[in-house]
C-alpha cells in the first residue's frame, strides 16, 4: 500500500512539473477556464432581451389605440418608435432600424366596441430569434389583456356586476406559472450548461494533450515504470492532478460564477459535488484514450477544440435528445455529456437529487467503466509499441 501511494505521488508531481513547463498545457489548464467562464457568462449576464425597438403605425388614432400604445411603452421588452404610416413602419423594419412593427388599422375601436373582430398586424424580424420571440410573446399577451378589458366594460354596460362581467369575459381563466426559470430567460437556461461544458472541454483538451505529448516524446514506458508497471496506477496517478484541479474549478464556478452572473442554484451542493466527481472519473479516462490515438500534442488540441460544438449540440441540452435522428441518439448516448447534463440540469435548475435521476447516474457509471477500459487498452498499446522500439 505504501508503494502504491508513493507511485501515485510520483506520477502526480511529474504531471504538475509537465504542466508547469509545457506552455500549451499551462495556458489551457490555468488560464482558459477562468477567461472563458467570465467571457461567455458576460454575454448572457442580463439574460433577457429588454427594450427591443418596435415601430408603431396607428391609423385608428382612437382612445383604444392610444391606450394600447401607452401599455406597450410600459412593457420591459418593448421600446416604441412611432411611424408615420404603415409603409414607414415597414421600411424601419426592412432597414434594421427596428426589430418589427405593429399596425393598428382604422376603425379598430369601433369594431371592438361593436363586438366584432378587430385585427392588429404584428410583424417581427425572425432573423434574430430572441428579440422576435420576446416581442411576439409580450404583445400577444397585451392584446389579449386589452381585448378582455374592452369586453369587460361592455358587459358592465349591459347591467352585469363586475364579477359576472368578468366571468362572461373570461369563462376559462388560465393560471400560467412558469416554474424554475420564472422569467423564461435564455441566459438563465444556457449559462449553467455553458459553464459545465467549459470544464468538460478544457479537461478533455488537457488530458488529450498530456497523453499525446507522452506519446510524441516516447515517454510512455517511463511513465508506466513510475507507476510500478501498473497501467491503472499510471492512469490515475496522472489523472489525480486533473481531478483535483477541476474539482477546484467546479467549486469556483458554482460559487463565484453563479453568484456573479446571478444564476439560480436550487439543488443540494453535496449532490452536485458527487456528480462532478463521477463526471470527471468518466472524462479523464476518455481524454487519455483519445489522446493515445493522436500523433502529437498539436493535433490533439486542434481536434478536441473542434469537437466542442458537436458535443454540445448532440448532448440533449441545446436541442431535445428525443428529437435527434436515431443514429445521433446512439452517438449521444456514448458521450458523457448527455447523462451528466440531464442530472446536472435537474439538480441545479429544478432542485432534484441524485436519487431522482438514478437511472441516468447508472448510465454515467457505465460510461466511466467503459472509457476506463479503453484508456487502459490505449496505454497498453502505446507502452508495448514504444518499449519494443526502445529495445
From TrEMBL:
Subcellular location: Cell membrane
Domain of life: Bacteria
GO terms assigned for molecular function: ABC-type transporter activity
Regions crossing the membrane: 21-43, 184-205, 240-260, 272-291, 298-319, 358-379
Domain ABC-2 type transporter transmembrane: start-end pairs: 24-377
Main location: membrane
Entries under InterPro entries matching the protein: ABC-2_transporter_component, ABC2_TM
Bilayer topology: Multi-pass membrane protein
Keywords: Cell membrane, Membrane, Transmembrane, Transmembrane helix
Gene3D superfamilies in the record: abc type-2 transporter like domain
Any single Gene Ontology cellular-component annotation: plasma membrane
Name this protein carries in UniProt: ABC-2 type transport system permease protein
Amino acid at each position: 500500500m505504501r508503494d502504491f501511494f508513493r507511485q501515485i505521488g510520483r506520477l502526480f508531481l511529474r504531471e504538475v512539473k509537465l504542466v508547469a513547463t509545457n506552455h500549451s498545457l499551462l495556458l489551457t489548464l490555468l488560464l482558459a477556464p477562468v477567461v472563458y467562464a467570465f467571457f461567455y457568462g458576460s454575454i448572457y449576464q442580463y439574460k433577457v432581451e429588454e427594450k427591443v425597438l418596435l415601430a408603431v403605425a396607428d391609423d385608428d388614432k382612437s382612445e383604444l389605440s392610444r391606450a394600447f400604445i401607452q401599455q406597450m411603452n410600459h412593457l420591459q421588452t418593448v421600446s416604441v418608435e412611432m411611424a408615420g404610416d404603415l409603409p414607414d413602419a415597414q421600411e424601419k423594419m426592412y432597414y434594421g432600424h427596428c426589430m418589427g412593427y405593429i399596425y393598428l388599422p382604422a376603425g379598430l375601436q369601433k369594431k371592438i366596441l361593436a363586438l366584432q373582430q378587430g385585427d392588429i398586424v404584428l410583424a417581427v424580424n425572425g432573423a434574430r430569434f430572441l428579440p422576435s420571440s420576446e416581442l411576439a410573446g409580450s404583445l400577444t399577451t397585451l392584446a389579449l389583456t386589452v381585448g378582455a378589458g374592452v369586453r369587460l366594460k361592455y358587459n358592465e354596460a349591459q347591467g352585469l356586476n363586475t364579477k359576472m362581467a368578468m366571468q362572461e369575459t373570461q369563462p376559462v381563466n388560465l393560471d400560467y406559472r412558469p416554474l424554475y426559470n420564472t422569467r423564461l430567460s435564455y441566459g438563465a437556461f444556457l449559462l449553467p450548461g455553458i459553464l459545465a461544458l467549459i470544464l468538460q472541454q478544457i479537461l478533455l483538451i488537457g488530458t488529450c494533450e498530456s497523453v499525446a505529448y507522452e506519446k510524441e516524446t516516447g515517454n510512455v514506458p517511463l511513465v508506466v515504470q513510475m507507476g510500478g508497471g501498473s497501467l491503472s496506477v499510471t492512469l490515475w496517478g496522472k489523472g489525480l492532478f486533473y481531478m483535483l484541479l477541476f474539482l477546484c474549478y467546479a467549486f469556483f464556478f458554482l460559487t463565484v460564477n453563479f453568484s456573479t452572473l446571478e444564476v439560480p442554484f436550487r439543488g443540494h451542493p453535496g449532490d452536485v459535488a458527487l456528480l462532478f466527481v463521477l463526471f470527471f472519473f468518466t472524462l479523464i479516462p476518455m481524454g487519455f484514450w483519445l489522446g493515445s490515438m493522436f500523433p502529437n500534442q498539436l493535433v490533439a488540441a486542434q481536434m478536441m477544440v473542434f469537437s466542442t460544438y458537436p458535443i454540445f449540440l448532440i448532448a440533449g441540452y441545446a436541442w431535445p435528445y428525443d428529437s435527434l435522428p436515431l443514429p445521433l441518439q446512439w452517438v449521444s448516448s456514448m458521450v458523457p455529456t448527455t447523462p451528466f447534463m440531464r442530472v446536472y440540469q435537474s439538480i441545479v435548475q429544478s432542485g432534484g437529487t441524485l436519487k431522482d435521476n438514478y437511472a441516468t447516474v447508472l448510465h454515467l457509471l457505465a460510461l466511466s467503466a467503459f472509457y476506463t477500459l479503453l484508456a487502459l487498452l490505449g496505454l497498453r498499446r502505446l507502452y508495448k509499441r514504444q518499449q519494443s522500439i526502445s529495445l
